[in-house]
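Crash report, auto-generated. Payload:
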Amino acid sequence: MPTLQFAWNEEMSVGIPEVDEDHKRFISLINDLNRSIMSRMASSEIKQYLQAIIDDAEKHFAKEEVLFKEWQYPDAEGHAKIHAKVLHTLDEIKKQFIPYGHDSDWVDAGVKIKKLLVDHILKEDMKYADYYRNSVLPK
Ligand SMILES: [Fe+2]
Ligand SMILES: [Fe+2]
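Recovered output after restart:
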């Protein structure tokens, strides 16, 4: 059984408190989703938890993109494209949720969502964390 509950750790910090707060909320929403899957809630309820993640991700990505403009972040466009891809993948997972008949499908989806969002923080958001530290943060 994959570990579905996880906690924030310093390794995930981008060094920008308001962004870290958003990412911590992501994690708690992902944990809520996975808890709803593991405790076999009704699929309509599980879907609501998934929708909460999608809504939150949309808002968070938009906020990051505003910050990129403020910082004149050189890879703003590339990062925004990746955000669009992540949202598309979340949407695909949501569409596939409807015919799910087996518990294992839900668990797979939960693991996929967790990986998608955590990987995004660790691989992509960390790139602007470096830029922010070196080029934006007042010395
Ligand atoms: Fe982020
Ligand atoms: Fe991002």
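Post-recovery validation: The domain at 16-134 is CATH 1.20.120.50 (Four Helix Bundle (Hemerythrin (Met), subunit A)).
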